[in-house]
């Protein structure tokens, strides 16, 4: 059964077009134009397709075919670049410290500690947990990622997971073993709600954020590091969890709850909203005033701004010398739907960043 998802993934990947940015990086411009036209639903000669293609070419100018050593060196070339390369592994580190794999690997033991008695009941509770995650993540991907934005999804998910972990910790600290009551069922419900909150935020969103914020010419190495961090701490959590459950019992859930709060604070203050921002415009988002932008995007963030405002990305783009060609093309375009088509291209770029 476990082979089925992998087989389907392999099958459908055969129909997935290559990223236009990867194609541009490797000099395959005609194929890049065809991919952009496929996403936008327009002909390759359409003005918006050519504008977007020129933007991507400008982003990669002088940065093609970097070796692994050159990419690693380039990650330190400036603070904005280093910052953007640091975020993908950081969000994957946070993802693992939500405690999700502790629940995944040891849910039968956790269910038993919450009062669910019997092997069949424990396995049934574990199966329901998996179903809840599948359904929740499907709904989130279809609705919340673009509807709410990355930042709000991470905040809702992180705070919700923290509250569920604190409830489970409190219940585990006070209830008697094998004693089943209403609080036991509420605690089991808290585990399922934890899964829902995970799927709202720290399950799918780190993959999207990591792919979006990494510089185009360094995305390969930045995401490789982030995947390595994810597996490293997945392994770490799987080894630590049984020790923690044995040594500090309910304190295990307190640790994960506190970590969920810490990552929520980081998102609130230090992660600008990336929804609707073109990959070529991420350099503006994480340029001067990036923390102000982060607070502008945060709920009630104005409290901490003291009236400060960051320059809109549109203004920075217009004044950027690198954008001279882009603005000329846009101003000369006769088609009224050029900008709308470009938005379609960016909105449909996907989490892997087209």
UniProtKB/TrEMBL annotation:
<dbReference type="InterPro" id="IPR005829">
    <property type="entry name" value="Sugar_transporter_CS"/>
</dbReference>
<keyword id="KW-0813">Transport</keyword>
<comment type="similarity">
    <text>Belongs to the major facilitator superfamily. Sugar transporter (TC 2.A.1.1) family.</text>
</comment>
<dbReference type="InterPro" id="IPR003663">
    <property type="entry name" value="Sugar/inositol_transpt"/>
</dbReference>
<dbReference type="InterPro" id="IPR050360">
    <property type="entry name" value="MFS_Sugar_Transporters"/>
</dbReference>
<feature type="domain" description="Major facilitator superfamily (MFS) profile">
    <location>
        <begin position="1"/>
        <end position="275"/>
    </location>
</feature>
<dbReference type="GO" id="GO:0016020">
    <property type="term" value="C:membrane"/>
</dbReference>
<dbReference type="GO" id="GO:0005351">
    <property type="term" value="F:carbohydrate:proton symporter activity"/>
</dbReference>
<feature type="transmembrane region" description="Helical">
    <location>
        <begin position="123"/>
        <end position="145"/>
    </location>
</feature>
<dbReference type="InterPro" id="IPR005828">
    <property type="entry name" value="MFS_sugar_transport-like"/>
</dbReference>
<keyword id="KW-0472">Membrane</keyword>
<dbReference type="InterPro" id="IPR020846">
    <property type="entry name" value="MFS_dom"/>
</dbReference>
<feature type="transmembrane region" description="Helical">
    <location>
        <begin position="185"/>
        <end position="209"/>
    </location>
</feature>
<keyword id="KW-0812">Transmembrane</keyword>
<feature type="transmembrane region" description="Helical">
    <location>
        <begin position="250"/>
        <end position="271"/>
    </location>
</feature>
<protein>
    <recommendedName>
        <fullName>Major facilitator superfamily (MFS) profile domain-containing protein</fullName>
    </recommendedName>
</protein>
<dbReference type="InterPro" id="IPR036259">
    <property type="entry name" value="MFS_trans_sf"/>
</dbReference>
<dbReference type="Pfam" id="PF00083">
    <property type="entry name" value="Sugar_tr"/>
</dbReference>
<keyword id="KW-0732">Signal</keyword>
<feature type="transmembrane region" description="Helical">
    <location>
        <begin position="221"/>
        <end position="238"/>
    </location>
</feature>
<keyword id="KW-1133">Transmembrane helix</keyword>
<feature type="transmembrane region" description="Helical">
    <location>
        <begin position="154"/>
        <end position="173"/>
    </location>
</feature>
<feature type="signal peptide">
    <location>
        <begin position="1"/>
        <end position="20"/>
    </location>
</feature>
